[in-house]
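#data-curation
PF: Archiving a pair of folding outputs for the training set. Convention for this channel: one message per protein, sequence first, structure tokens after, nothing in between. First:
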Amino acid sequence: MGRLAGRCVLVVEDEALIALMTQAMLRDLGCEVIGVAHTLPDAMKMVQANLHCLDAVALDINLGGEHAAPLAALLDANGIPFLITTGYDDELHLAAFEGRPVLTKPFLAEHLAEALILLVPDAKRRPTR
């Protein structure tokens, strides 16, 4: 899991316990968690403030009833890879994120690591802050 050491990751999750679990997993994998956003507006602000250093985002698709599609569009527009964390497993909720790694909650640290390694191979590493 050393391949993830120093990677800057943002956690976007509205459920506090899941956010804490994800944050702990990322830190155990050697990632630097730059923050946790619980709402869509907070996530948008955090992404914009950290465009220069974000390596990846762990993104819940339902943030307090708001769909995360606008954030996904912002990430895509800036070339920031992201994975989906969700309790949904149906086409209706996941169609907008086709081709993205999807981790169904609850997920294991090894699955998170595998998805991140695919998203941020060494050659794509962004400059640090």
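PF: Second:
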Amino acid sequence: MRSLAEVFMSGLEEIRKSWKWFLALGILLIMLGGVCVGTARTATTASMLFLGWILVLSGVVWLVNAFRVLSWGGFFLYFLNALIRGFIGYLLIRHPHAGAEGITLLLASLFVVGGLFRAVGASIIRFPTWTWTVFAGLCAVVLGFMLLVYWPSTSFFFIGLAIGIDLLLDGAALVGFAAAIHSLPKLTSRTV
């Protein structure tokens, strides 16, 4: 029977062998993120349409499931869930910019409230490196207020920009991971 260390090391060797896939995926994500940042308005509209279609399709699934359990008492809950999902999905597909405005407003509020909680909580508790958490919280508050001040015009590009930045960072992390695992030395089997 293999020890836990041997299982871990064999898994590590398999990951090390596939460093090119991680590199390729990282580069692809960086390119896609660059496109989203460069065309943030289009990326925002596309993400709202995608979310709308996901909600419509999930509404259809819930509707089919509602009629599958017609004799059960939960039929109306399933049916109501299907109607709400389908209706919200339809609204997002029909009016993607209004959906982006609503989601941007919610995100701005989340940034303000969450940033305040992080900044105040970290300054009270004062754990190691608490000043970075305070700084991150204050940056979130500033971003939230900027979104609120310039809302609704920020809603046309913010979601696409945020998705693009996230893709860029994920891609950069994967490229770094690929470089790190590629530089690992090959494991040799030990003889006992």
